[in-house]
C-alpha cells in the first residue's frame, strides 16, 4: 500500500529549495544594505558629535530631504505603511528608489541631528530590494507577499542583530492579533542569513548587560504588570502624538519641504536651549547608561518630545530605536518606585514600549531573550503582553489591519488609519 505522506514530503522538496534560494537572495541583499547603512550611521553620528554646531543646518537638511521626496519619492513616501499595504492588497512592485531615498534621508537626518531611528530604513530597504525579484522570477501575488515579508524580517534582523525576533516581526506586524504562517519558512531563513551576512561584513551590535534579575515572586510579577500598563500607555501616547503632529502639519503646511524645515528649526533651538545632544540621534549611550545607573526621571519625556517633533514633521528614519530609548529610561525611572533593579526594568521598558507601540508582543518578547538572556523571558512576556493590551487599537504603523481585536469588537481587516471614521459611523448609528 502506498504511503501518501511519503509523497507529500517529496513534493515539499521543490518548495523548500525554491524558498531557500529566494529567501537567501533576499537575505544577502538586505543584510548588505543594512551593513552599509549601519557603517554610514556610525560615521555621520561621530561627525555630528565632533561638530555640535552642525545642528543649525538641520532645518536646511530637512528642507532638502522634503524637496527630494516631493519630486522623486511621492510614491514611496508612505514608507513602512506602503509595504504593509502592498502585502495586504498587492497592486504594483515597490519602486526600487525607496531603498536609496530612505537611506539618504535617514543618514541626512542623523548627520544633522534629528531624533529618528533605524528600523524603518532597514525594513524599507529589505522589502523594496526583495520586491524587485517579483519580475525577475515572475512570482504570483501570494508568492510576492511572502517575499516582501521575508524582506521585512531580513531588514529588521540585520539592523538589530536579533534574527528570531526579526523573523517573527515580519509575521506579526501586518495584523493585530494574527500572524501569517504561510511565510514562516522564508521569514526565518531570510532573518537568520541576513543577520549572518551583517556579521560577516563586520557589523557590531550593541551589547546590553542585565546584571540583576530577581526570582519570580508575587511582588515582582505585580510590579511587572504595573510597569507593563505604563509602558503600553506611553507607547500609545507616542504613536498618537506622532500621527497627530503629522496630520496637523499636513493640514496647515501645504508645501511638504517646509514641514521638516520647521521641525528642524524647533529641534535645533531646543538643543541649543538645553545645551545637550542627549535627546537627538539614536541615543545608544543613554540607553546603555539606563542599564548601569539611575538616570534623570524625565529623560524619557525629552526623547519623546524630540522624536515626535522629528518624525511628525517629516524627517526620515524609524521609530523603534527611539522607543527603545524611551522604554529603557522610563523603566530606569520606575525602578525605585516599584522596588525592582533598574537594569531589569530598563530591559523590560526597552522591549515593552516597542511591543505596545508596534503591536508586536511576541517579537518583542523574543527580542528580550535574544538581547538580555533567557532569565528575563517570563518577565518580558508579561510586560510585553500587558503593554500590547493597554496600548489600545493604535500603533506606529497605520496600515496595520485588525485580525483579532484586543478587547472590544472591531471588524476584521479594518486599518488602524480607518479606526476613527469607523467609530464615528458607529456613534452616528447608535444616535439614530
From TrEMBL:
Keywords, sorted A to Z: Membrane, Transmembrane, Transmembrane helix
Primary subcellular site in the record, as a coarse category: membrane
GO MF, one annotated term: chloride transmembrane transporter activity
Cellular component terms per the entry's GO annotation: membrane
Top-level taxon: Bacteria
Membrane topology: Multi-pass membrane protein
Protein name: Chloride channel protein EriC
Species of the source: Solimicrobium silvestre
